[in-house]
Write a structure and sequence with these properties.
By secondary structure, this protein is an all-alpha fold. The protein has a domain of 80 residues. Strand 1 and strand 2 form a beta hairpin. The chain has a two-stranded antiparallel sheet. Strands 3-4 form a two-stranded antiparallel ribbon.
Length: 285
């Protein structure tokens, strides 16, 4: 008498029982319970293959997690060793170690290479990591200035630094370092352009609160407010006084906005109509 396999619905002379051990492995590897007490030989082999594949995937995920934990533990060691290499002017070795640190952050946070976002350090207790990241990018920026063949790398690192600097608590120190660096930079034009953009990004030459709200110093509304400052406010004594006062009080407000996404949305909704009105009234673009 032919028996029907409950899994594939085909008929066979005999079926194979699924023992409790196999049921447990199905649950562990595939996260599913198997309701059939017995299946055909083909389905039985297919289930074994699924168990093996599931076990392989679990092992791979466990290995990835172990690698993440290892990289996270070793990341500070990469930075310390890199700074030691910097101290003895072994710049190429320092660069390799710094790149390992950056890759560790990318792997731990599961993001593509070269796409570190300051928002991933928005969680409580992560601000110190942002400070380390700033110093790493700055050292790499200086290292890549030692030769013209590294110009493209230097520009990429510089852009990363511009992206995170507004949200770091070392931005003032970074600005001073950049100002000193311009004097002796190998690529002086590139260094001056970086300094100009850094001033914009950190609010020394831009709208700090708007930058924090929009997450970019080259957003349309930020550009309008910056033009309003340069073309209108800076032309009068009261305007200049307002700008200087704004620079004194805005950094802590901007940091608060940066840390709270709900505030970013609220501030953007307030800035947008103001920027639109200012642009229309003073013909700013």
């Amino acid at each position: 008498m032919a028996l029907t396999c409950p899994r594939c619905s085909n008929e066979f002379e005999e079926l194979i029982k699924i023992d409790p051990g196999m049921r447990l492995r199905l649950q562990e590897t595939l996260n599913e319970s198997h309701e059939h007490a017995e299946v055909c030989n083909n389905c039985f082999d297919a289930l074994k293959d699924e168990i093996n594949q599931g076990a392989k995937l679990i092992a791979e995920e466990n290995q990835k997690e172990q690698n993440r934990q290892s990289l996270w533990k070793n990341r500070v060691g990469f930075v310390k060793e890199a700074r030691e290499r910097m101290g003895v002017r072994s710049f190429s070795e320092a660069a390799v170690l710094y790149e390992k640190y950056l890759r560790a952050l990318e792997v731990v946070h599961d993001i593509p290479a070269g796409q570190l976002d300051p928002m991933i350090f928005n969680a409580p207790g992560k601000s110190s990591e942002l400070t380390i990241l700033c110093t790493v990018y700055w050292d790499l920026y200086k290292i890549y200035d030692t030769s013209d063949k590294y110009l493209e790398r230097q520009q990429k690192v510089g852009q990363h630094l511009l992206d995170i600097a507004p949200y770091s608590n070392v931005q003032s120190d970074l600005l001073k370092r950049a100002e000193r660096f311009v004097r002796d930079a190998n690529n002086a034009d590139n260094a001056r352009e970086f300094l100009r953009k850094l001033k914009e990004a950190t609010g020394q030459s831009g709208c700090f609160i708007a930058t924090a709200a929009y997450g970019s110093y080259d957003h349309k509304e930020v550009i309008i407010l910056r033009a309003f400052r340069d073309q209108i406010l800076e032309k009068s004594l009261l305007g200049r006084m307002f700008v200087r006062t704004y620079y004194l009080v805005s950094p802590p407000i901007a940091r608060l906005i940066y840390r709270r996404k709900s505030l970013q949305s609220l501030v953007r909704s307030m800035i947008q109509p103001i920027a639109t009105h200012i642009a229309a009234k003073f013909n700013l673009r």
